[in-house]
Amino acid sequence: MNYRDYLQQVIYKIINPLIRGMIKVGITPNTITTIGFIGNCVAAGFFIAAAWMLKGDDLPLDATEDLSALSTTLAGWGGFIILFAGLFDMMDGRLARMGNMSTTFGAFWDSTLDRYSELISLFGIVLIFFYNDAFWMAVVTFLAMIGSVMVSYTRARAEGLGLECKVGLMQRPERVVVLAVTALITGFTGSWLPLEIGIAVIAVLANITAFWRVGYVYKQLK
């Protein structure tokens, strides 16, 4: 059992009582998926608000400094909300299995909203770096967006060819944790450096994972 499977089993033991309660009251997996997506939209709103604070047009220097501190706090809250919304991302699948409510559309809906959630959150961070005079970090964030989409796309295409393709270092759970934790640290420290490091890690490892999957599929088909 690898570390991801071990952590997953630990979390399942914690949330199973909650899942049973959801089954009793008739909550569906698609509802949980949608709530998680809304949570990510709220997190993106915090990131966009942080970027707006950094914009600070025509403000006195002391006011700009105050807004800069507030922007890191908002980013930290965005990270917390992403982490919280990530729990819903785990619960929908568990609810579907335990409640015997798995459907083809449910899997499609979950995957679609996952992509929206990531892109919306990362878009907010692009704005943060753009208005924080960190042009190249905005570019790196865009590369993280590309890598995140391509990791999922390569797996979907492989499955369309009848292959299972889950290899790689930076799958969605890892990306969520790295983004959320580094945003939280930025909120606590008042420095953008932790978030910059987190985004750079996602950009590099997500794209490596995507090409890793391309190579894996090539070998399997050959």
What order do the helices and strands come in, and which of them pair?
Elements: H1 3-25, H2 29-55, H3 61-98, H4 104-131, H5 135-160, H6 172-189, H7 193-221
Helix pairs in contact: 1-3, 2-3, 2-4, 3-6, 4-5, 5-7, 6-7
Mean pLDDT: 88
What proportion of the residues form beta strands (DSSP E)? Answer: under 5%
- CATH fold assignment: Four Helix Bundle (Hemerythrin (Met), subunit A)
Main beta sheet: none
Task: Supply the CATH superfamily name.
Answer: CDP-alcohol phosphotransferase transmembrane (TM) domain
In short:
Helix content is 85%, strand content 0%. With 222 residues, the chain is mainly alpha-helical.
Structure description:
- The protein is mostly helical and about 220 residues long.
- The protein has one domain (about 5-220): Four Helix Bundle (Hemerythrin (Met), subunit A), CATH 1.20.120.
- Helices cover about 85% and strands about 0% of the residues.
- It is built from 7 helices and no strands.
- It has helices spanning about 5-25, 30-55, 60-100, 105-130, 135-160, 170-190, 195-220.
- Helix 5 (about 135-160) packs parallel to helix 7.
- The longest helix has about 40 residues, at about 60-100.
- The model has no long low-confidence stretch (mean pLDDT about 90).
Provide key terms for this protein.
222 residues, mainly alpha, Four Helix Bundle (Hemerythrin (Met), subunit A), 7 helices, 85% helix, globular
